[in-house]
Design goal:
The structure is a homodimer of 242-residue chains. Chain A is α/β, with parallel strands linked by helices. Chain A has ten helices and ten strands. At the A-B interface, helix 7 of A face helix 7 of B. Chains A, B: Pfam families: 2-ph_phosp.
Chain lengths: 242, 242
């Protein structure tokens, strides 16, 4: 097994992911929010790149909810922001949500070259890794790609720590896997801050930005591991429960 | 002070380095080799991107030495490979060397947008950091950029560890510096493997590649710290002693 990582979505050329299963991580907060929304009963998420696309969906079908952010904050005319805590059962259950975020939705689209695409987060990492391992073995897949969304096309610590957790989970099953340099680095960073990721993230850019915007509870939420027992997949332009 | 890092030369847009001093690192081996050659008395290094450019220089001036690599090995018709250990005093003293390597020479050229550019390596990091700190304070420079060459346009562990050592040296003088996420990550990785970088590098791609090609002594050499007491600068397309 090969495990390769990308530090932001712009690094990924479609050819890079060919024949691989891809895990896409925008820990703070797009993929965490999508996973939590689906876990709370949302029927599907449709990630789109532009605000106008989202508004067009709503025009065609009034029942959809619009969610996402620009500059970390709710978009004018949208139903929901990008905080996972806004996506409560009573709000999202049974609904289709059209989402647009700065990095996460773009990263999912950039991963289109992969055989299968799984939005990932600390909140459901173990279940997702287990599923991917099983499926990869069944279907003779030799590469798992971990695509960090990054922030503004830059290396982003929280995504890398979560990538490192996935490497940790995958390595357990594939102890002889080839890891590329970024997978090794993310694994070592994860192990160093395994017990308290806030210890390093308190110095990082995007984490601090969200803190300043008042989303402290989101930071706690997105860094908690494995309390969601469900796997999501991005397929035919839609995120759904596997 | 701001300290920002780039994981490979393709990540750098010329605008990114504006008004900053840049440290360019291709630890294994281009910048280590350049620094060692100059330290052994070479007059100057002219980094060029293509083999044909190097051959043209030789045609114009027979006294120049041609050095560098493709696939880690000496280029046909060249005088020297890319091993620092080939650049002995008796070979290089007083000479102009035209060098072309896969990543390092490109990274130096990609850093052209910076105010000043310093090739960096473990072998002269302390002296280089001290010089940059002094000059940055004198000339009111607010950003130090660390440009890792990377390998084949990918994140490369040995360059990141060396970047982390530079962050460590710069932080000592600027304890309140703003570090971007990659600088923080490189610093933490450096600190984790400070006493034995081989412990992590033995899993990394380029390090292993050089090992397989028989350059074990180069790996030892390039990871030794601060035995060169001299600073190099890349200016007007030429690397010289400051």
């Amino acid at each position: 097994m090969n495990i390769v990582a990308f530090s932001h979505y712009k690094e990924v050329a479609s050819e890079d992911l060919k024949d691989s299963y891809a895990i896409v991580i925008d820990l703070l907060r797009a993929t965490s929010t999508m996973i939590w929304a689906i876990s709370n009963g949302a029927k599907r998420i449709i990630p789109v790149e532009k605000v106008e696309e989202a508004l067009l969906f709503k025009k065609l079908d009034e029942s959809v909810l619009l969610g996402g952010e620009r500059g970390g904050l709710k978009i004018d005319g949208f139903d929901l922001d990008n905080s996972p805590l806004s996506y409560k059962s009573e709000v999202v259950s049974g609904r289709t949500i059209v989402m647009t975020t700065t990095n996460g939705t773009r990263a999912l689209k950039k991963a289109a070259g992969a055989k299968r695409i799984f939005p990932g987060s600390f909140i459901n990492a173990r279940k997702t890794a287990e599923y991917i391992i099983k499926e990869a073995l069944c279907h003779d897949i030799h590469t798992i790609s971990i695509v960090c969304a990054g922030t503004e096309e830059k290396f982003t610590l929280e995504d890398i720590l979560c990538a490192g957790y996935f490497v940790h989970l995958l390595k357990k099953h594939f102890p002889d896997a080839f890891l590329d340099d970024l997978s090794i680095a993310s694994y070592e960073l994860y192990k160093k801050f395994e017990n308290d990721p806030h210890e390093i993230l308190k110095y990082s850019y995007h984490y601090n930005n969200l803190k300043k915007l008042g989303f402290v509870s989101d930071l706690e939420f997105c860094l908690k591991k494995d309390f969601v027992d469900m796997v999501c997949e991005y397929k035919n332009l839609v995120v759904e429960k596997v």
